[in-house]
Design brief:
single chain; 604 residues; alpha/beta; 2-enoyl-CoA Hydratase, Chain A, domain 1; six-stranded parallel beta sheet; 22 helices; 18% strand; globular
């Protein structure tokens, strides 16, 4: 039998090509099938109609984790990435609507594993109070056999609070813990080179100290005290107690069981879930054995739509640490949200040019970041303010670079526990010569045109003159910050400096010292924006910028991140110079002047 190949090598080559082609085709088919499947899921999810809300329904609000400032609304993101189906503003609108909805007879609040910050918890609790003012019953109960201060803060707004008989009730106060790296750096031989403007600018302390400085401890203690005061007063008012007694029980009794909570009057009864369900039914007049009709907050919020109007207010969200370039949403692609100057500037311009937009709200939830990026955003806010009212709404955090941007608004609204201020800047570099030489065996020799040409290399310590140069540069940035705040708040720079120095203020204290105009939530900012534009607050449409990335957009971001990660890993494992270059890039990132809050806050 004659073969179409003159030799065995040609046959093997043909088989290799055939195998590769077949595998490639199968892989391509698999990829197309996978994305086609996702597309069909998205179509199905988007096409699903929400079940109608039946008369006599109880609105069930299950709250857990963190409630986001924005959601994409993308069905795939919600299904595959567990994105929340509504954000904090959707929740507030839903509760406001439910208060006057004849189909909703009561609200059942079930908080569990709440990790949200206290400023957002304030907003949610205030919305529960708004619903409660309608006269409809509000019932609260636990879901996972644990209730801490955050969960109880929300639950205590209810008319009746119930817990499982064997549940945990943590009632022992609040703490904020900071981690310090100086000991680690000492062991590694890393020498931080730090310049800061502001006695309270504690962002650099983890690298230079092993404990809190007196100034940093002072501001942290003030924040903790304000959170405790908010909590204690809210609980005392709701449960008919005296605030001092509540605080004393928190400090001395350390209640840890539902039985303790019941004995001290913090909850109304010890009930299992089926028994709570019966109590909810009784509260709305159901007979024993009659089925309880419920509707989830997810379903209800999806049916509550903001009214369409030709009177539009743009809402520009600045969320996450401030950086140059494009924003990063966090989640699938990155570990945390980043507010990129290019993205935010484009969003403000788009909002300003949108037909019908007559006012703008800048919603800030940011600890700050790169000072020049914050200044570029401020410039765009100032341009927008020339053609329309611009109101600043502060979320959980609007500090340092976040406050820098806030100076462009005509009115600033913050929650009582919003963290703001932190008017100060710092510059930070690292001398990595010791660990590179002692542990990796790398040595360096430089040819330079001047004695300071390699000061940013990270391969040597700095001279006194070089440190003085950076200090002048940092002070110039700090002075610019003071001048912007002074011009915006009607103060002198000396007066601002006394309030600044990197100190963080709660919203309550910031109002007292003149850095914030008014306490309130996002709804108050909407009211002020409407008033400034001579609009009816009940007849406006809110339009959010920038849009939240969909699943496929996040997938594209992740692919780019993975490609960069793989390329970096290959370089780091094969080329020593790539390792040095990576360290150098990190130095350049840290080496820019930062207007960032001095700590990451998680109070529990």
């Amino acid at each position: 039998m004659d073969l179409p190949f003159e030799s065995l090598p040609e046959l093997m080559k043909f088989l290799k090509v055939l195998t590769a082609s077949t595998l490639g085709a199968l892989l391509a088919f698999g990829v197309v099938a996978f994305f086609g499947f996702l597309f069909l899921i998205a179509l199905a999810a988007a096409g699903d109609s929400q079940p109608p809300v039946r008369p006599g329904s109880v609105l069930v609000m299950d709250l857990s984790g963190a409630i986001p400032e924005q959601v994409s609304g993308d069905p795939l993101t919600q299904m595959l990435l567990d994105e929340a189906s509504y954000d904090v503003h959707d929740l507030q609108r839903a509760l406001e609507e439910a208060a006057t909805d004849d189909r909703i007879d009561a609200l059942w609040v079930r908080p569990f594993n709440v990790t949200e910050s206290w400023a957002t918890l304030e907003a949610v609790r205030r919305s529960i109070d708004t619903f409660k003012e309608s006269g409809k019953p509000v019932i609260a109960s636990g879901r996972n056999f644990y209730t801490g201060e955050a969960e109880y803060y929300l639950a205590s707004a209810a008319d009746s609070v119930y817990m499982d008989p064997e549940a945990i009730f943590e009632f022992n106060g609040f703490a904020l813990t900071s981690m310090f790296y100086k000991g680690l750096f000492d062991k590694l031989g890393v020498e931080p080179i730090i310049i800061r403007a502001g006695d309270y600018k504690g962002a650099v302390e983890p690298y230079t100290r092993e404990s809190l400085s007196p100034e940093n401890r002072e501001q942290l203690q003030a924040y903790i005290d304000d959170v405790e005061s908010l909590f204690v007063n809210a609980v005392a008012d709701a449960r008919g107690m005296v605030a001092d007694e509540v605080e004393s029980m928190m400090d001395n009794d350390n209640l840890f069981s539902a039985v303790d909570a019941a004995e001290h009057g913090f909850i109304d009864d010890l009930l299992f879930n089926d028994q709570v369900r019966e109590r909810v039914g009784a509260a709305i007049g159901l007979d024993e054995g009659e089925d309880l009709t419920t509707v989830s907050m997810t379903t209800y919020a999806a049916q509550v739509r903001a009214a369409s109007s030709s009177n539009r207010i743009a809402v520009v969200h600045i969320s996450g640490a401030i950086m140059a370039g494009s924003s990063e949403a966090g989640g699938l692609a990155t570990s945390g949200a980043m507010a990129g100057s290019d993205t935010i500037i484009k969003a403000i311009r788009s909002a300003r040019d949108r037909r019908g937009v007559q006012a703008m709200i800048i919603r800030i939830d940011s600890p700050g970041g790169l000072a020049p990026a914050a200044d570029a955003m401020l410039r765009e806010v100032e341009i927008a303010s020339e053609s329309m009212p611009v109101i600043i709404s502060m979320g959980d955090i609007a500090a340092s670079g976040g406050y820098w941007i806030a100076t462009g608004g005509e009115h600033i609204v913050a929650e009582a526990t919003t963290l703001t201020g932190s008017i100060g800047v710092f510059s930070m570099f690292f001398d990595l010569s010791a660990p590179l030489e002692d542990r990796l065996g790398l040595s360096f020799d430089t040819v330079e045109s001047g004695p300071s040409a390699d000061m940013f290399s990270g391969y040597r310590d700095w001279t006194r003159a070089e440190r003085a140069s950076l200090e002048r540069f940092t002070d110039i940035t700090y002075q610019a910050f003071l001048e912007k705040v002074a011009a915006a708040r009607g103060m002198t720079t000396d007066e601002v400096h006394e309030l600044a120095r990197g100190r963080v203020w709660t919203g309550t204290d910031a109002v007292d010292v003149g850095l914030v105009d008014e306490l309130g939530g996002f709804e108050v900012a909407v009211q002020r924006a409407a008033e400034a534009a001579a609009l009816d607050p009940e007849d406006v449409q809110l339009i959010s910028y920038p849009s939240t990335p969909s699943f496929f957009e996040q997938l594209g971001m992740t692919s780019a991140v993975m490609s960069r990660t793989i390329a970096t890993w290959v370089g780091l494992t094969t080329r020593p110079d790539a390792q040095v270059e990576m360290l150098r890039s990190e130095l350049e990132r840290h080496g820019q002047v930062q207007a960032r809050m001095p700590f990451d806050v998680s109070v529990r």
